[in-house]
Amino acid sequence: MKILVVDDHSLITDALKLLLMDIDPAAEVYVAVDAPGAEKLVEQHPDADLMLLDLGLPGTSGTALLETLVGRAPDLKILVLSGVQDQRSVMRVLQLGAAGFVPKSMASDNLVAAIKFVLSGGVYIPADLLDDNTRGATLLGLPERGRDMLGQPTSSRVKLTERQEQVLQLLARGAPIKVICRELGLSEGTVKTHVTAIYRAFGASNRTEALLAARRHGYDVF
Q: What pairs with residue 32 in β-bridges?
């Protein structure tokens, strides 16, 4: 297992190294302390399994570095770390393609669970965001549970076909289109059609929005 750690505080990087070695004693851990260093790590280790990225590095603002890294290494799983758990920031990093968000105040055992979950292909979202059925919808511009896209009450949850539910579960596991094709024995065009239908059903424009909306409608996707 190869992990990239990007944080400018040595105490945090040292602690993360120990944590990662507990998860896998054979893990290779590479560290950078700034944005140029993070970009260099991505270039030097294109086969990395995961990056733990501090969102508050000096010399970069907001999500600029995350956007750059996702653009250069779209297949790299990036778990964002932040000292501030701002709900809008959480949703923003997920929409940009991060594999999850964890506050630096998170207990070590929960952090280990988050890392393992992301490594397994999941998207980690703080429980307090998932448990709030209306706040996440508002931030995403999606309908709240029990209301349609126009804000009108609706009495029934979104209905998916059996095949769409199978695709939804694989999306929740972080599976790319080609893996879904292989798992379900479907053509790429057919899978993309199902994905489009799922997004349309939940009023979503990407995987993260669809999964959050699916959870609000009672689907077990996390």
A: 6
pLDDT in tens, 132-178: 444 444 444 444 444 433 334 343 457 888 899 999 999 888 888 89
Query: In the chain, which ranges are E strands?
Result: 2-6, 28-32, 50-54, 78-82, 100-103
- CATH homologous superfamily of 2-131 equals Response regulator (3.40.50.2300)
pTM over 0.70: no
pLDDT in tens, 34-77: 999 999 999 999 999 999 999 888 777 768 888 889 888 888 89
Other CB atoms within a 10 A radius of the CB of residue 94 amount to 25
Q: Kindly give the pairing relationship between strand 78-82 and strand 2-6.
A: unpaired
Distance CA 188, CA 27 (A): 34
CB-CB contact of 48 with 76 (8 Å) = yes
Domain ranges of the chain: 2-131, 143-216
Whether the CB-CB separation of 151 and 58 falls below 8 Å is answered with no
